[in-house]
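User: quick one, sequence for these tokens?
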């Protein structure tokens, strides 16, 4: 493994640990200060911190399916590792690495909650639109998924993404032999 690839993976892992740590820290603060207490209103009628235990997925879907969510998180993390290993160390792929790092950190942050507590701590609530309560890990997942869509649609070309397919790697190796 060359120095640039090692740097990419090291940066990825450091960022991943920091993001997971930030998610777990915010959830810890919420448990300490809001569990069993009224919401902390930041903007009356608009936004507040409110303790909630989510035993499902987004918007409370699939309640009590912790094994399913654990499996999905493992598959997401495995896919991220697969892409990271195949990703060229070129600067062009840094935005992709950042999105994958945030996506993985979000999956890991909520997986830690599910395994350790049997539910995910949510606390960010937009009261104005009565949006479902969410957490920092959910923000990572949502923003990184949006970023990935934008990158794939508008930034990367088909040839940029060929390195991630098995066919693309095989074709690349055949070209190198010639």
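Assistant:
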């Amino acid at each position: 493994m060359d120095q640039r690839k090692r740097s990419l993976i090291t940066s990825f892992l450091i960022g991943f640990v920091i993001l997971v740590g930030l998610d777990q820290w915010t959830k810890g603060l919420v448990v300490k200060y809001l569990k069993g207490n009224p919401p902390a209103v930041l903007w009356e009628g608009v936004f507040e911190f409110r303790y909630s235990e989510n035993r499902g997925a987004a918007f409370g879907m699939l309640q009590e399916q912790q094994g399913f969510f654990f499996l999905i998180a493992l598959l997401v993390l495995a896919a991220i590792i697969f892409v990271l290993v195949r990703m060229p160390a070129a600067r062009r792929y840094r935005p992709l690495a950042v999105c994958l790092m945030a996506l993985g950190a979000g999956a890991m942050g909520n997986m830690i909650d599910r395994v350790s507590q049997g539910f995910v701590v949510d606390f960010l609530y937009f009261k104005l639109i009565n949006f479902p309560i969410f957490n920092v890990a959910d923000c990572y997942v949502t923003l990184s998924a949006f970023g990935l869509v934008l990158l794939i649609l508008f930034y990367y070309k088909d040839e940029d993404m060929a390195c991630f397919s098995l066919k693309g790697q095989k074709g690349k190796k055949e070209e190198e032999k010639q």
